[in-house]
Amino acid sequence: MIDLNKEITRNGIDKELETLEIVLAAKIGRTALTLEEYVQMRLSQGATLEIIRADLIVDLKEGGRIFGEFKNALQPTFAGSVNRFRDIGELAETGISATYRWVAVLVNTCPDCIERHNQIKRWEEWEEEGLPRSGATVCGQNCKCILVSAEAVELQPIKRG
Ligand SMILES: [Zn+2]
Which of 64, 118, 145, 148 could cross-link to 132 by cystine, CB 3.0-4.6 Å? Predict the structure, then answer.
């Protein structure tokens, strides 16, 4: 049982790191392109490399147009990643054969997640349908939903008026 938990954790972490690597590479690639365009534009306007360099350092420090965008783009990626690590922990602890309840936060929840809220399925079934933050719901990386062991207390849907 402990070995199985370790394996689930190890596989989950490997998969997550792989995903992060791909996402980060894409975002760094985009920032590099923006950076290159920016430098070319400034050079064509007659700015010296020293001036451009100084401006870029300010942009980096203050989260300006170029690096600020990069930082903003990473935030949901890391938030999603932390929550997926939490899911891996839950899976390792509860086991693959148990059933899991989809729990939405119900604040600014997307229609896809509202529909899934309180549904119970086996982990594999959820994996097939798309785990939270896997891109299966319109909220994507911003999804705050979690899968909890269905053994846990039944949740009543919150009515909002
Ligand atoms: Zn969600």
Answer: 145
